[in-house]
Write a structure and sequence with these properties.
Three copies of one chain form a homotrimer. Chain A has 203 residues and is mainly α. Chain A has a domain at 2-140. Chain A contains nine helices and no strands. Chain A has helices spanning 2-24, 29-51, 57-60, 62-77, 79-82, 88-110, 115-136, 150-163, 170-190. The termini of chain A are far apart. The A-B interface holds A 22-32, 34-35, 37, 45, 49, 52, 54-56, 59, 62, 65, 76, 79-80, 82-83, 135-136, 138 and B 49-52, 111, 113-114, 116-117, 120, 123, 131, 135, 140-141, 143-145, 148, 150-151, 154, 194-202. Chains A, B, C: This is Trimeric intracellular cation channel family protein.
């Protein structure tokens, strides 16, 4: 139940982020809808396909489909109001990756996979919808370098498996891991922290 | 039988469209073959993988493989004659998306999925081979905005499920849905109709 | 056993090639790790997903994960020494595609697929990790045209199935096929051989 609610919240957040990028690319309504779909379910689809959960989640649960269509219609209708929320795109995105990281880890645990694989699945669920959105919109997928992004997901995932030694309740673990993802990303952007790039000088 | 024939016709149409794009990118013969393959089976592969039909269709049916190799050899040998067919690239593409939309819907119905998911599968089958072709050829995947494209597939799919209330015979339904896709796309290009973009003015 | 060792060697070669590209793109450490992963397991993941081997190989065998993490840490720590190996990027890549071609063919054979499909799986395993790396790093996926690349894999695969008529021992077949891939690629680059492009003159 708790698991399903956060899944839906993440879906809304990502769908709206997809709508905003697609509208800025001057797409037509159906193009916007497809980008909203890809952004919202892309990461989870990749995850499901790689562990063999098929048909993939969103095909077996019409809730996701209605939520994405609803979010898209909402975002399109109130697009001029959303402009005041321009900076909120960042916040939506941040909540989305936190929620999806947790969903990805949970899916990995259910499939009985190794903690490292679960963290990889969480990161994949969180980040690859946005990567696919950027590739389809012909944007550079900045995710891997411009900001702390995947790093926040990986740290959230590590937190989950470290705290699991001390905490019993999965729901608490998920909430804490999600908050770590949000916190890491917000702090990183607020204080312009980023990991040093590993660029090799070509002396 | 009918189902298989339209699948093969769509495969030929898409393979040739892939050959034409790849040759314009000055690829070598094997590069051209790979792009022909990706264009022809990319959308269907994505569909099969997402609903769990594995090994994917083209691996279990050598007909597709021979048809793609044959179409590629044909298109390469007669490439100078094909130049007179330059505008035919558009027609091939249009027939291809109509046929693939129908195949995608059928696959979704066989898997017992919801009508909305079936329409999504039809659109995916029709459009994502071309999207993958464009990404691999480093072209901007124009599909989502330049012309009515995905929109035609979605309208064809909707027609299918609306008419299903009144018509029994699946073959008729498929033919009508396919013709709707072709008609919508031809009319849209002929009369330069496109859906309004949802670009937000940044006043 | 033999099969597993070459799989691991290919993984190391590709992971390091991914690290080098990602570092040149000034990615942060986790970005570099993700690109190393995608490069190393991308082609095999695509192969596994398309034939229905799920969860995909690297999720069921932590060896791959540790090998990739280890190779990444090694390549990052010794990045200044690796600069002297700059031309080795090419060699790593060549060994990698030879090994992966063989692994892909073997996987297809185990799944009981047609020789042509096995060759396609070998080529896919070898080439698509690099294609995904290039797409994620916003590089043009040069693979299909700049150099003999996929062509070497296809020729190696053809050699395997032709020699199979005369040789019993699979290990010998794999070694010979792999050497053909390496030889074709090295000779092509050494003597600047490339297949003629099929560009159509637009007289």
């Amino acid at each position: 139940m708790f698991f399903q609610i956060i899944d839906i919240l993440g879906t809304i957040a990502f769908a709206i982020s997809g709508v905003l990028v697609a509208m800025n690319k001057r797409m037509d309504p159906f193009g916007v809808l497809i980008i909203a779909f890809v952004t919202a379910v892309g990461g989870g689809t990749l995850r499901d396909v790689m562990i063999g959960v098929e048909p993939v989640s969103w095909m077996r649960n019409m809730t996701f489909v209605y939520v994405i269509i609803g979010s898209t219609v909402f975002a399109v209708l109130f697009r001029n109001q959303l402009k005041h929320l321009r900076r909120s795109l960042f916040l939506f995105d941040t909540i989305g990756i936190a929620l999806y990281t947790v969903v990805g880890i949970e899916t990995g645990l259910i499939a009985g996979l190794h903690p490292i694989i679960c963290i990889a699945l969480g990161t994949m669920t969180a980040c690859f919808g946005g990567v696919l959105r950027d590739i389809l919109c012909n944007e550079i997928p900045v995710i891997f370098r411009k900001e702390i992004y995947a790093t926040a997901c990986i740290l959230g995932g590590l937190t989950y498996f470290i705290l699991r030694e001390f905490l019993e309740d999965r729901n608490y673990l998920f909430v804490i891991a999600g908050l770590i993802v949000i916190l890491v990303r917000l702090l990183a952007v607020r204080f312009k922290i980023s990991l040093p790039s590993l660029y090799r000088k070509e002396e």
